[in-house]
Specification:
Blueprint lengths: L2 E2 L6 H14 L19 E7 L12 E7 H4 L4 E3 L1 H4 L1 E3 L6 E4 L5 E5 L8 E7 L5 E9 L1 H4 L4 E4 L6 E13 L5 E14 L4 E9 L4 H5 L2 E11 L5 E12 L4 E2 L7 E8 L7 E9 L10 E4 L2 E5 L8 E5 L11 E2 H5 L5 E7 L4 E7 L13 E6 L4 E4 L18 E3 L2 E6 L6 E7 L5 E7 L6 E5 L1
Parallel strand pairs: 1-4, 4-30
Antiparallel strand pairs: 2-3, 2-31, 3-5, 6-7, 7-8, 8-9, 10-11, 11-12, 12-13, 14-15, 15-16, 15-17, 17-18, 19-20, 20-21, 21-22, 23-24, 24-25, 25-26, 27-28, 28-29, 29-30
């Protein structure tokens, strides 16, 4: 028998009341009460669902969210229907969601449309109940109506949004000189809904690289270093043919690059380059870099040798002795990291595709792997079912609860489940059923 959940609003209160009643219970003769098994602390697990726009899997029909307790998320007899019963998150296209570390708050900045750039936060109350809290603020005047933003790992205090604009420059004879890349970086006080800092900078590559037509064309995924005094921002490079100033699509992929800024001032930008990984470090819609054991570990994409996980040490430089190649670790070709998230033990769940992925209705088939950052190992999680239409390119969220990581699995337009991976043991638990609708898909847990 499946339990269909519509409203979990009062579950935490019920759990607390039950615990108090049990702990205060005693027999009539004043004897010692029987021992009580400890009650595991629950947290909310919010599932995000992306509705189809015009094409299956495009996610452009809007984003809906629905929350259940961690106990129910682990229960395969529970069934939830976010597309029919979920809360519609304000956003013209797929929302860019973030959550507090304990899962009690959802943060959103609307992406594109009339509300693009509006920051709102919601208290999670179970089911489709999300109550807006605090004031709304627009960051569009600073970073546009379709900002790329992320929550920094500083105790849910700060978010950071970024953009880059480019302009080709020519000399008096109309010869191409270089491409000017102007970066904007904003930090946002998540608690008080106010702008902390905003700065714009010209971001230059080396003179040799710029003369060949290379420039930074997209930036994303800011992350703080261990000391909290530097902000790292991932970057994507593009290139023009300097003879014609036309886009060049067949060029040598340079070493992966990251922009480094002073924090919190957002001043003194510089660019660091990896000699281990090549390709982009800006990611897509999921956080692409994480702090672990005093270093920042960063995924790259579009690497001709397959995606790497790169390491930036406390000296704010790439550690080029750390060579973690996903092709080698997984035994595949052209591994491409779509999204990932480590637990505090340095073991991570990673979503990826590769050259052997089937072509599904919305793109290449995706898989999950269990990764060990210290041992530099990766293994596909075979206990999760895969389908050619299991599409992870737009995946955004993983819930980390201790050493457990929660993910969603469902092919485009088909039902699936929540799965919970114990990163210490590798054990996988099939959880609640996710009811899908035609052409739509799930983009993670928060």
């Amino acid at each position: 028998m499946r339990r269909n959940l519509l409203n979990m609003k009062y579950l935490p209160a019920i759990l607390i009341l039950t615990t108090l009643l049990v702990s205060c219970s005693d027999d009539d003769n004043g004897g010692t009460p029987p021992p009580v098994d400890p009650v595991e602390e629950s947290r909310w697990i919010t599932v995000a669902a992306a509705r189809m726009g015009e094409n299956p899997g495009d996610g452009n029909g809007g984003t809906l969210i629905y929350s259940i307790s961690s106990e129910d998320a682990k229960d395969p007899t529970v069934s939830i229907e976010p597309f029919d019963n979920g809360f519609i998150v304000p956003s013209n296209r797929t929302a860019r969601l973030q959550s507090s570390e304990d899962g009690s708050t959802i943060f959103n900045i609307s992406y594109a449309g009339d509300t693009g750039g509006n920051y709102t936060k919601y208290t999670v109350e179970g089911g489709q109940n999300f109550t807006q809290t605090g004031t709304q603020i627009s960051i569009a005047p600073y970073v546009g109506s379709a900002p790329r933003w992320i929550k920094l790992f500083d105790g849910d205090q700060t978010g950071s949004a970024v953009y880059v604009s480019t302009e080709h420059q020519f000399d008096e004879n109309d010869n191409y000189v270089r491409t000017e890349a102007t970066m904007g970086v904003l930090t946002l006080d998540l608690a008080n809904s106010q702008i902390n800092e905003f700065q714009e900078h010209s971001i230059a590559l080396s003179a040799e690289e710029e003369a060949q037509g290379y420039y930074i064309s997209r930036i994303d995924m800011p992350v703080l270093n261990q000391a909290g005094d530097k902000l790292y921002i991932g970057a994507r490079l593009s290139k023009v043919d300097p003879e014609t100033a036309e886009r060049d699509n067949d060029y040598e992929i340079l070493g992966s690059k990251t922009i480094v800024l002073d924090y919190p001032s957002l001043l003194n930008p510089s660019v660091i380059t990896s000699t281990v990984g090549h390709g982009n470090t800006n990611g897509y819609r999921s956080i692409n870099a994480f702090l672990y054991n005093s270093s920042v570990y960063q995924a790259n994409q579009g690497d001709p040798d397959g995606s790497h996980i790169l390491k930036i040490d406390a000296d704010n430089e790439y550690d080029n002795s750390y060579d973690f190649n996903l092709d080698e670790a997984l035994g595949v070709e052209d591994a491409y990291i779509l999204a990932w998230r480590p637990a505090s033990n340095g073991k991570a769940v990673l979503a990826y595709r590769h050259a052997g992925s089937a072509e599904g209705v919305a793109g290449a088939q995706g898989f999950f792997a269990l990764v060990d950052l210290e041992a530099q190992t990766a293994q596909r999680i075979d206990a999760i079912p895969y389908d050619p239409d299991f599409y992870l390119f737009q995946y955004q969220g993983f819930v980390v609860d201790g050493t457990e990581i929660y993910v969603t699995q469902a092919p485009v337009g088909e039902n699936g489940n929540i799965y919970i991976i114990d990163t210490e043991t590798g054990e996988v638990t099939q959880g609640a059923e996710l009811v899908n609708v035609e052409g739509s898909h799930f983009i993670g847990t928060f």
